[in-house]
Specification:
299 residues, alpha+beta, elongated, seven-stranded antiparallel sheet
């Protein structure tokens, strides 16, 4: 259960997430010199309360409040800041079902970082998105206890969440989140939630799919001809998702952003005068060499 804490508006307001993201309004950004600020409170099935806040518009940060001896699990290298009472350690998940080998094969981290509040007062941890991404909190208890997400989407988790790597069809590496806790996922661009009815089918670019409930049937198929992929800019694979269930879609996956940046760096504008001068000089040199070789051959 995700509860909105009034924070100056008076009272509480609980809302049924139903796997829906708890998006923080821009007006609720933390004011200066007020860290930490608690606009949301997560209540676990054991009735434990964990306040958290999502900061920023792009490249967001989730700040989680930890009581003494409480801990959260996060992906390695995601910590931005933490209070002095927080201790961290890297551990190897014991119940990965052999998925760690696949993670190592695909160049992924096979460890998890645990942040534990060892002090006698409340502490906090700030976990940042790895790129220009928004943070999506999902309560697994309202999603049937199991969610499947992209391998790079998982950011951190609170309470009972087990991350298990799994290889889908066509060799796609995914993460299966199992438990009754709260998981935070990173998604690029805008986030769209689709509630699929029984038998309803939606086709999504394989890179744009962030997460889905386990009740959704996933079929990875070729998106079309190689010609359209090479010259049209579309993805090679398309995910065919069949309901019932909930699907979360991102508008700008990281690999698409990286491709656009790479194209901008490696492909200078043809309108640049310096580039046009270099091309003209090159053809002039080639012309002189060809003409000189013909004259020398005639002589």
């Amino acid at each position: 259960l995700l509860i909105f804490w009034g924070g100056g508006r008076g009272g509480r307001e609980a809302f049924d997430s139903a796997c829906a993201p708890a998006l923080l309004p821009q007006s609720m950004a933390a004011p200066a010199l007020s860290t930490p600020f608690q606009p949301y409170v997560y209540q676990s099935p054991q009735a434990a309360l964990t306040p958290f806040q999502i900061l920023g518009g792009e490249a967001q940060i989730v700040q989680v409040m930890l009581k003494p001896q409480e801990r959260i699990a996060a992906r390695p290298g995601s910590m931005c800041y933490m209070s002095a009472s927080i201790q961290l350690e890297n551990v190897l998940p014991p119940d990965n079902g052999g998925g760690g080998v696949w993670q190592w094969f695909f160049g992924k981290n096979i460890t998890t970082t645990l942040f534990t509040n060892t002090g006698d007062q409340d502490g906090y941890v700030g976990i940042g998105a790895p790129s220009l991404a928004r943070i999506l909190p999902i309560d697994l208890a309202t999603c049937g206890g199991e969610v499947i997400c992209q391998s790079d989407a998982f950011l951190c988790s609170v309470n009972d969440v087990t991350v298990t790597p799994t290889v889908m069809r066509r060799g796609f590496l995914m993460h299966k989140l199992i438990g009754q806790g709260l998981a935070f996922l990173a998604a690029g661009g805008s986030i769209v939630q689709k509630n699929l009815a029984h038998g309803e089918v939606i086709m999504v670019d394989a890179g744009c799919m962030v997460a889905m409930t386990s009740s959704v049937d996933l079929q990875i198929k070729y998106g079309g001809s190689v010609k359209r992929t090479l010259f049209g800019g579309d993805g090679l694979f398309t995910a065919h998702l069949t309901g019932p269930g909930v699907v979360f879609i991102q508008s700008l996956p990281f690999h698409r952003l990286a491709q656009r940046i790479a194209r901008a760096v490696t492909s200078p504008s043809v309108r640049e005068p310096r580039l046009l001068a270099q091309i003209a000089f090159f053809f002039f040199v080639v012309y002189v060499m060809v003409v000189s070789s013909l004259l020398l051959t005639d002589i």
